Automatic annotation (TrEMBL):
UniProt name for this protein: Basic membrane protein
Keyword Signal on entry: yes
Entries under InterPro entries matching the protein: ABC-Purine-Binding, Peripla_BP_I, PnrA-like
Pfam families, per database record: Bmp
Length: 360
């Protein structure tokens, strides 16, 4: 019994010691933080917004040194880029695209003393945290605007890849559009790419030809808004306020504020309180929001959006609460129920109102 008690005590002590271990504080003037981007910072969208977050860190912590590398493919080259960051003194690395996930794990195993933060992934480790935002909430709000502004009841959606992140956003957008206008149908073109300006523009044109008088997007450049402006149809952008690409037709956009999580993380590294977390913040934290409205958006629509925004931000209600049917008529979420985060993170079905099927 004494031997067993000693083993239990030692095991408990080990657990306590492990739990108590943390990364040492890094003074701001000694801290180098690095960002790994899969696109160019001039894309006007995804990478541009991440880089604005990096610049917010520089402003909030002027003694911290930041560095970045852009247009790194989601493959072995990303490991080489992270190794180069570390050779140059980086203590925390932000990998800003889903496809970096396994490569972050590889680099983290080699460098247990370096902190890694991976965007949109699901694999964690002692020195790897993950972060993302509940963009589906802002998508829903932008859908309210789009559904209110269509006259043909046909909305076109240019979508990157058929993965849960994109499907979740498409579904939330459609739920918002049909909340404002139950007759709305959403047509989708899949790009199978994150960044392809030419393909994005051609997809937008095809949707206009198919009858859409409002476009929306999960793509990384301003090509869809440009196509909307040229075709004379409204558009809801993404990532950033994309009104510069469609000055007369851009209604609003669900936008990111990555600086919220970047400043939070850097402060914890400086204070020595960083630990791996699964961060998934939304409207309540200001990590996602809507871009300013176009002058064409009526006050009544703005009031509708604001009412729904308050309900979501307060925690009173969230987007995927029942009843919700899929686009085949099956009841997926019953009245009084809502999807769990795991349901949201693995979503592979389309809501009522989205035309077509998911690509295999």
């Amino acid at each position: 019994m004494r031997k067993m008690a000693l083993i239990v005590a030692l095991f408990t002590l080990c657990l306590f010691s492990t739990a108590a271990m943390s990364f040492e504080a890094v003074p701001a003037d000694k801290l180098k933080a690095a960002w790994l981007y899969n696109g160019p910072i001039g894309d006007g969208g995804w990478t541009y917004m991440h880089d604005l977050g990096r610049l917010e860190v520089e402003k909030a912590f002027p003694d911290v040194t930041t560095m970045y590398v852009e247009s790194v493919p989601e493959g072995p080259d990303s490991v080489r880029a992270m190794e180069n960051f570390i050779r140059n003194g980086a203590k925390v690395i932000f990998a800003t695209s889903f496809g970096y996930m396994d490569y972050v794990q590889e680099a983290a195993k080699r460098h247990p003393d370096i902190i890694f933060m991976h965007c949109s992934g699901f694999k964690m480790a002692d020195n790897v945290g993950i972060y993302f935002g509940r963009m589906y909430q802002a998508r829903y709000l932008s859908g309210l605007v789009a559904g209110s502004m269509t006259e043909k009841n046909v909305i076109g959606f240019v979508a990157a890849h058929p993965i849960p992140e994109v499907i979740r956003g498409l579904n939330a957008f459609t739920l918002g559009a049909r909340r404002a206008n139950p007759d709305v149908k959403v047509k989708v073109v899949w790009l199978f790419s994150w960044i392809d300006p030419g393909k994005e523009k051609e997809a937008a044109k095809a949707l206009v030809d198919a009858g859409a008088d409002v476009l929306a997007m999960h793509a990384n450049t301003g090509s869809v808004p440009q196509a909307a402006e040229e075709a004379g149809v409204y558009v809801v952008g993404y990532n950033n306020d994309m009104s510069q690409y469609a000055p007369t037709k851009h209604l609003t956009a669900p936008v990111w504020n990555w600086g919220v999580v970047y400043k939070y993380t850097v402060e914890k590294v400086i204070n020595g309180t960083w630990e791996p977390e699964d961060i998934w913040w939304g409207l309540d934290k200001g990590m996602v929001a809507l871009a300013p409205y176009a002058k064409d958006v009526p006050d009544a629509v703005k009031d509708l959006v604001e009412g729904e925004r308050q309900r979501i931000a307060s925690g009173e209600w969230d987007v995927f609460e029942g009843p919700i049917k899929d686009n085949k008529g099956n009841l997926i979420v019953k009245e009084g129920q809502k999807l769990t985060d795991q349901d949201l993170l693995s979503m592979n079905w389309l809501v009522e109102g989205v035309e077509g099927e998911l690509p295999k």
